[in-house]
Amino acid sequence: MSTPLTPVITEFWDRQDLYTLDGYRAVGGYTALDKALKTDPDSIIGQVKDSGLRGRGGAGFPTGMKWSFVPQGDGKPHYLVVNADESEPGACKDIPIMMANPHALVEGVIIASYAIRANHAFIYIRGEVPNAIRKVAFAVRQAKDAGLIGKNILGSGFDLDVVVHSGAGAYICGEETALLDSLEGYRGQPRLKPPFPAVAGLYASPTVINNVETIANIPYIVDRGVDWFRQFGTEKSPGFKVFAVSGHVKSPGIYEAPLGITMRELLDYAGGMRDGSEVKFWIPGGSSVPMLTPEHLDLPLTYEAMAEAGTMLGTGTPMVFDQTTSVVKAVTRWLEFYKHESCGKCTPCREGTYWITGVLEKFEHGHGTEGEMETLVNLCGQIAGRSFCALGDAAATPYPAALKYFRDEFEAATHTSADEQFDPVASYVFAAAGAR
Amino acid sequence: MPISESTREQMREIAGRYPSARSALLPMLHLAQSEEDEITTDGINACAEVLDITPAEVTAVATFYTMYKRTKVGKHHIGVCTNTLCGLLGGDAVWDALTEATGAGHNTASADGEFFLERIECQAACSNAPVMTVDWEYMDDVTPSSAVEVIEKLRRGEEVHSTRGPVIRDFEATEHTLAFPDDGLADAPSVDAKMLAGLTIAKERGMTGGNAQ
């Protein structure tokens, strides 16, 4: 039997008033907060630890453990920062969560802040999505008006202020320490770790930074319990995931399912590939994780199985490309992105992304050489692990994976351009084009 | 033009949201841009004065972030995602059609000041590829002809709605929203069929996430 879908965060998205406090309350919203405020903060951290919830932003770090790293009784202010800078190519699940169910995020923010003893929380949303920003700002204001944010929340003695903050266009600010610099009003450039944010984060105080989807899980875990949560997923990847499927599939969109569902099952729910089309390659969670091929479609989408296959679950937002796609062109475009988004702090990343992109563009135009195929491998090796943050590692990711599975296309690109190898029009999704 | 006193007052209000005033710099720059249609020396100086830092420190920030423009944007900012997924699924063709229809190029405005075009990076709407933005509001699932139609409607002054968001205003209005996001437009429909794709199947087949136990 195939894995069923499990709408939890997405369960009531078809309610037009879900974004309002009344709508959210009508489906049980804010009952978790009520429960949480009657519980000792440490036991909330314990529950989240026991749930096994892992960060949904890409790295998959255990959330409860992250919370427990915040020193308690240290006399310093603590901060919760929500990373809502969703900009990873292929990732499109946090923005929908904020537009459809902003109160789940806000309720999670209040509970998480209470648990880590933060009296100030920030939701850092990328600036290019005003509609997500206004939805969250509206939800925060409604929660304030209802006494769910502010002084002495629901008579618990707990005070919290929540600020919705707009970014200004910088992928790097999705990196947690760059986000902190940006939130302090500086250029968003990563910090050297340690110290880790849990000890010295925002304003050099203990700070927890969590992804939107991670925080949106919290009310459901607190309300329904650890056992309920762990019935979904696997031992090492418990729970469910808001998967967002994109690419040459019939019905791209949001599919919430337990971790451990396979790509083949997800693809089936998404209507399969468009007519006359088959999977050429797919990427489980953003361009920063290595691509996979049809032979990997039956692997469970879990943190551990993806790692074993040499990739990562990442953001859990699979992009699926069919046979009309030029791998050379796809990889070149991703590297142009990393080149544009490198913050310039570390030389290997700043210079390396320029060099890789320059060489890849030669291949795209059919002018690469056999020797340059190896030059690119070398360049990637010079960047990976040699920069402060993971952007450099990410930039070194697409090419080696592409070369591993599609070496022949790079060889062909020593004499034939990507557009001659693959008619770009065939890859378009509009009616006149379509797969050939 | 020097930034008005009322805008400076709004800048101070934004600074008051944060434990440390400098945290307000990004939204303050959005506010400056909403008044001047770009980041000007006057805008930079006003931010510097309000925060009591140097104009050089503000400039360092303003030049780092892609959304701050150093030339006039004009009435509407038009973004086309040309990152891998959107680009290959048709964003490249949408881009070509829009450059032809407006006469503008990447990070430049059309001669009449109506449209400023930008090849944007991933807009977090990949299920709705190819994606276009108008004043940063979503225009999902566009084709070359539907994208040009949006431009023509705007040019004629007709009402245009975001596919997941409110009625299109203009670039400066969106920049103001980024500084003051509770802008009264939160009731715009923002959930489309693609966001409901999984839920719809689950309901048809009686699948649930399971309620409280």
Reported by name, the CATH topology of the largest domain in chain B is Glutaredoxin
Please name the two chains that share the biggest interface, counting residues whose Cβ lies under 8 Å from a Cβ on the partner chain. A-B, 102 and 83 residues
User: What is the total number of structural domains of chain A?
Assistant: 3
Strand content of the residues of chain A, in percent? 5-15%
Q: Radius of gyration of chain A, rounded?
A: 22 Å
Please state the structural category of chain A. alpha/beta
Q: What separation lies between the terminal Cα atoms of chain A?
A: 33 Å
Helix content bin of chain B: 40-55%
Looking at the structure, what is the overall shape of chain A?
globular
- The fold-level CATH name of the largest domain in chain A is Rossmann fold
Could you tell me the number of beta strands of chain B? Answer: 5
Order of helices and strands of chain A: HHHHEHHEHEHEHHEEHEHEHHHHHHH
**CATH H-level superfamily of the largest domain in chain A:** NADH-ubiquinone oxidoreductase 51kDa subunit
CATH architecture of the largest domain in chain A: 3-Layer(aba) Sandwich
Brief descriptors of the model:
heterodimer, A: alpha/beta, Rossmann fold, de novo design (two linked rop proteins), four-stranded parallel β-sheet, four-stranded mixed β-sheet, 19 helices, 8 strands, 11% strand, B: 213 residues, Glutaredoxin, 2 domains, 8 helices, 42% helix, globular
Description:
The complex is a heterodimer of chains A (436) and B (213). Chain A has 19 helices and eight strands. By secondary structure, chain A is an alpha/beta fold. Chain A folds into three domains: 21-230, NADH-ubiquinone oxidoreductase 51kDa subunit (Rossmann fold, 3-Layer(aba) Sandwich), CATH 3.40.50.11540; 240-322, Roll (Ubiquitin-like (UB roll)); 327-427, Up-down Bundle (de novo design (two linked rop proteins)), CATH 1.20.1440. Chain A has a four-stranded parallel β-sheet with strand order 3-2-1-4, sandwiched between helices. In chain A, a hairpin with a 5-residue loop joins β5 (240-247) and β6. The radius of gyration of chain A is 22 Å and the shape is globular. Chain B is of the alpha+beta class. Chain B has a five-stranded mixed β-sheet, sandwiched between helices. In chain B, α1 crosses α3 (41-51). Chain B has helices spanning 5-15, 25-36, 41-51, 55-62, 84-102, 144-155, 171-179, 197-204; strands at 76-81, 108-109, 115-120, 132-134, 137-139. Chain B starts with a helix and ends in a 9-residue tail after the last helix. In chain B, β4 and β5 (137-139) form a beta hairpin. The chains are: A alpha/beta (436), B alpha+beta (213). Chains A and B meet through α5, α7, β3, β5 and β6 of A and α2, α5, α7 and α8 of B.
